[in-house]
């Protein structure tokens, strides 16, 4: 991808003779570069699948307060992305490069804020203190992590793999305790004995809650350590070098002018909104998956395993989509890949308490998730290429393209999970309760399948109007070659 600036000249612990010409970038260099994208996906996956149930059933925060945190936190995350992207573009070069310092200096703060996000300071927090605590750390963490997607959009294969790593670590650490709590709740719901038995059940739930909180903190510490190690590998193994015809210097275009140019580029608009609605669909189903399995499908003891199966399927199916993308084109592949998600959601929502069906459909949903990770991000460089052809005098706006792309994705994700939690508040969701009313169960069913399917269909319609097909993409590449951008 000629738009990504961080082309490695070094490698992890290997000295390379820069005078000797090589036919391509060594695998070791690519791996060092790719590792830098791991923290963003590891932590993002953990938040996406577990943050909602953590706030509601572990912290026992009110659904209304949780919805504000989940929405405003993502909204702030979305707003900070274009600002960080512009700041990166405006920054000058240093001895270690232009982009690497941003990762190096935000890494310690990012690790700290992520760990504190999953830490419960005390058992008897007031509602105001609890809201302020988690909202503050959520905003701080998202701000520091805004640097990562701007600098690492190329590393999609490694990032998809690390979604599996993040979910596996967080899910397997906390899943045992969620399963135990589900078992205790089932015993309590079925207990008709004397009051002493009821008191014992409450004590068991309290003990399980404490263990679950410690498990979430343990998972955060493990992912925080991996965050540190990934950034260290990136720092030691990658050096920046200029892309063809790029100065990699401070851009001279004012922020608002650059933003106007980006959002007025028609192919970019169609791609962004198609990706927005598709991402909304996936994130709404993802955000409600744990609650749906726990309270609506009687699968609370298995949801962490289902998440692991889903993401394993996504990782394995990446080569399949890459092959189809090359043979059939990106636009055709995105329609096939996203359409697979619809029957998977329908079957999961209808076949309750059926573990084999859940496993099979989770695998199918995972293959569709891989298409969402791979194809829209592979379409974005084509849009940037088209912009370069049509605006040859305006270069080095790639960070704005990528940051705005992430902005809409994150803002949509915040809307989906925030609105979902707000709906649960109005239908009477009780944080930490073992049993919920029929309105809550029905709402979880609607939030998991029918609403995401409608959003996904809207996204597919928008993708129909995306103008860059394979023929147009080849014309763009030919124009870039004539201009000297592509060898």
UniProtKB/TrEMBL annotation:
<dbReference type="InterPro" id="IPR039672">
    <property type="entry name" value="MFS_2"/>
</dbReference>
<dbReference type="GO" id="GO:0008643">
    <property type="term" value="P:carbohydrate transport"/>
</dbReference>
<feature type="transmembrane region" description="Helical">
    <location>
        <begin position="215"/>
        <end position="238"/>
    </location>
</feature>
<comment type="similarity">
    <text>Belongs to the major facilitator superfamily.</text>
</comment>
<feature type="transmembrane region" description="Helical">
    <location>
        <begin position="301"/>
        <end position="321"/>
    </location>
</feature>
<feature type="transmembrane region" description="Helical">
    <location>
        <begin position="49"/>
        <end position="72"/>
    </location>
</feature>
<dbReference type="GO" id="GO:0005886">
    <property type="term" value="C:plasma membrane"/>
</dbReference>
<protein>
    <submittedName>
        <fullName>Sodium-dependent lysophosphatidylcholine symporter 1-like</fullName>
    </submittedName>
</protein>
<feature type="transmembrane region" description="Helical">
    <location>
        <begin position="131"/>
        <end position="154"/>
    </location>
</feature>
<dbReference type="GO" id="GO:0015293">
    <property type="term" value="F:symporter activity"/>
</dbReference>
<keyword id="KW-1133">Transmembrane helix</keyword>
<feature type="transmembrane region" description="Helical">
    <location>
        <begin position="400"/>
        <end position="427"/>
    </location>
</feature>
<keyword id="KW-0812">Transmembrane</keyword>
<feature type="transmembrane region" description="Helical">
    <location>
        <begin position="99"/>
        <end position="119"/>
    </location>
</feature>
<keyword id="KW-0472">Membrane</keyword>
<keyword id="KW-0813">Transport</keyword>
<feature type="transmembrane region" description="Helical">
    <location>
        <begin position="357"/>
        <end position="380"/>
    </location>
</feature>
<dbReference type="InterPro" id="IPR036259">
    <property type="entry name" value="MFS_trans_sf"/>
</dbReference>
<feature type="transmembrane region" description="Helical">
    <location>
        <begin position="268"/>
        <end position="289"/>
    </location>
</feature>
<dbReference type="Pfam" id="PF13347">
    <property type="entry name" value="MFS_2"/>
</dbReference>
<feature type="transmembrane region" description="Helical">
    <location>
        <begin position="447"/>
        <end position="468"/>
    </location>
</feature>
<keyword id="KW-1003">Cell membrane</keyword>
<feature type="transmembrane region" description="Helical">
    <location>
        <begin position="333"/>
        <end position="350"/>
    </location>
</feature>
